[in-house]
Design goal:
Layout (H helix, E strand, L loop, with lengths): L2 E6 L4 E8 L4 E8 L1 H4 L7 H23 L8 E7 L3 H18 L3 E5 H7 L12 E6 L4 E8 L2 E7 L5 H11 L6 H9 L24 H13 L9 H27 L3 E5 L6 H13 L4 E2 L11 H12 L27
The structure holds 5'-O-[(R)-(carboxyoxy)(hydroxy)phosphoryl]adenosine and zinc ion.
Length: 344
């Protein structure tokens, strides 16, 4: 029996998780920093890395206690290498590196987006390949064609804001609180999504990239024109309409991608995949396309280390050799990284 400890600190969640060689989650601890960043309406990188530094030891300790394991019983370490906030990444990476070095165990560097896709496999290993995976988070909105495990092709990515970022920014502008995505999710349930009209963004060059800055500008214009603010009678309708516009932008892009790539299944993942309306529409959409669709449970959509440990285990089982990797480094952005062939 093998135990893999995953560590995730790419943004504002400090997380550790242990999976055994059957991919069973023995424990998963996620410590959110939402309260720390809420007064600023967004993640403050310096505060995030300092908080990771304070929390990481306790989070790993708690994770081991819940799994009833000692560090000596961990056979490999998996840690997020990027993309993410560099200071935050370095905390998790250095912690994992120290453990792997001390115990002379393999250390596996994990790509954050690839880990989000892996989250869909935590609860079912039966996703038919090839799959189209939509990663929708606060930092990313990308579609990948997943030919098989560890074999991906980038289909499209956002050229400006990520979907979650657009939701967070509109919520911040309306002073609704932080993070905005889950707040809009709750309030939009009470509104009429047909009340306000938003155009569908589309790429003039025929690419499958996304763009959310146009939607965001249109939303800001509507807020000003209608003098929308907290307590306004049309606020819920506006939020429902904006949320629906984001969902339509995601799904219409997927229609094109399905025509081109002819996948056998659809995967939705990343923090925004927690959104109740998006989950419903994505599942309905899959049905209409006659494709099975998979969405991780909400707790595995937002950043977590279970998806990191799981991908570490997949990589270990692929037969590739890993050492305690003293030269492993962190990558804040996708470009220029040599993580793997994800963006070839
Ligand atoms: O994957 P994640 O935890 O971090 C990144 O890798 O970015 O995603 C965080 C994003 C934030 O933008 C947050 O507002 C959004 O996910 N989010 C939601 C919901 N829960 C989290 N967006 C819409 N509805 C939700 N329920
Ligand atoms: Zn993420």
């Amino acid at each position: 029996m093998m135990n893999v400890l995953g560590i995730e600190t790419s943004c504002d969640e400090t997380s550790a998780s242990v999976l055994n060689s059957e991919f069973k989650i023995l424990s998963s601890v996620v410590l959110s920093q939402d309260e720390i960043h809420a007064p600023y309406g967004g993640v403050v990188p310096e505060l995030a890395s300092r908080q990771h530094l304070t929390s990481i030891g306790y989070v790993v300790q708690e994770c081991l206690e819940r799994a009833q394991l000692k560090l000596e019983m961990i056979n490999a370490y998996a840690v997020t290498q990027g993309p993410g906030l560099i200071g935050s990444l370095l905390v998790g990476l250095s912690f994992a590196k120290g453990l792997a070095f001390y115990f002379k165990k393999p250390l596996i560097g994990i790509d954050h987006l690839e880990a989000h896709i892996e989250a869909a496999f935590l609860e079912t290993r039966e996703i038919p390949f090839p799959a189209l995976a939509l990663v929708v988070s606060g930092g990313h909105t990308s579609t990948f064609f997943v030919k098989k495990k560890l074999d991906y092709e980038l289909v499209g990515r956002t050229r400006d804001d990520a979907a979650g970022e657009a939701l967070d920014k509109i919520a911040k502008f309306l002073d609704l609180g932080y993070p905005g995505g889950p707040i809009i999710d709750g309030l939009a349930e009470k509104g009429n999504p047909q009340k306000f009209t938003f155009g569908l963004p589309h790429m003039t060059d025929g690419s499958l990239d996304f763009s959310f800055s146009g939607l965001k500008t249109a939303a800001l214009r509507l807020i000003k024109e209608n003098k929308l603010s907290k307590g306004h009678p049309l606020l819920f309708d506006f939020l429902a309409s904006f949320e629906m516009a984001v969902i339509r932008a995601l799904l219409s892009n997927l229609v094109q991608a399905i025509k081109l790539f002819k996948p056998e299944s659809l995967v939705l993942c990343g923090g925004v995949a927690r959104n109740k309306k998006l989950r419903r529409h994505f599942t309905e959409f899959g049905g209409k396309q006659s494709l099975p669709s998979f969405i991780p449970s909400p707790e595995f959509c937002t950043d977590n280390a279970a998806m990191v440990a799981s991908l570490g285990l997949v990589k270990l089982k692929s037969g590739k050799k890993f050492s305690f990797s003293l030269d492993l480094n962190a990558y804040p952005r996708i470009k220029g990284s040599d993580l793997q062939n994800l963006y070839k």
